[in-house]
Amino acid sequence: MGRISNKDSRSAFEDSFKRATSPMMTLLLLNEKPMYVYNLSQELEKRSNSTYKMAFLYPVLYRLQEQGYVEEFSQEITDSHRTRNYYTITESGREYLRFMMKKYRELLNAVDIIMEYGLTDTVPQSETTVL
Q: pTM for the whole thing?
């Protein structure tokens, strides 16, 4: 097996992070209002100053829908009966979002503590029992 280049490993890290957080980001936006896929994508990009771009939101939405966290509905958007599919969060989706946000904050805090220790020569005595 060949070596992974620095560029590939950086991309893999970003891709993994987005895969892990995309359900939470999607539910977070849908908690504000129903949206269609392009609208979700644009909103993620806009709020992150083009840092958080997701090209494949459909698999995320389908998985959330299968789990009962999201529902899909169609709405006519023109007089010629053209419809657009919107997604909305369910009550169980809101509960799951609260759970994910709590876990995300706990994990982020733990990673911050680990990183802080990694940047110093010694672990402060007052914080040795934090974890």
A: 0.79
